Amino acid sequence: MVYTAESDPLCYPGTTVLRNKLDLTDQSELDEFETTMFVLRSEEPWPEGYLDVTHYLALHHHLFQDVYDWAGEICTIRIGKGGNWFYYPEFIAKELNRIFQELA
Fold it and tell me: How many CB atoms sit inside 10 A of residue 34's CB?
């Protein structure tokens, strides 16, 4: 899946491939690795906790820790996937807190 970034510090120079722990610069290879690791980690026990922001980030870290150094961290740049922008980083923390308050 092709990522889009307004500024691409998370991508390899001249590409839309996210920097990753294996230094894969071919998008299809990264997609395969990401899917494989996601499936393997999803079959392990998940981090315990209450479904709140901290737990949500721990789940993200658990699922993507083998692929990205930034797994489990709130995004700090504007980035998207498949032609769709993710939530703008300047609003993520506030919205995560709002959503999990509503869910509680």
Answer: 19
Give the separation between CA 13 and CA 25, rounded to whole angstroms: 10
| Through-space distance between the first and last CA atoms of the chain, rounded to whole angstroms | 33
| CB-CB contact of 97 with 55 (8 Å) | no
pTM: 0.82
Q: Which helix (H) or strand (E) holds 3?
A: strand 3-5
Nearest to 64 by CA among 47, 76, 51: 47
pLDDT, tens only, 62-87: 999 999 999 999 988 887 777 788 87
Q: Which pLDDT tens digit goes with each residue over 20-43?
A: 999 999 999 999 999 999 999 999
Q: Which residues on neighbouring strands pair with residue 4, listed in sequence order?
A: 80
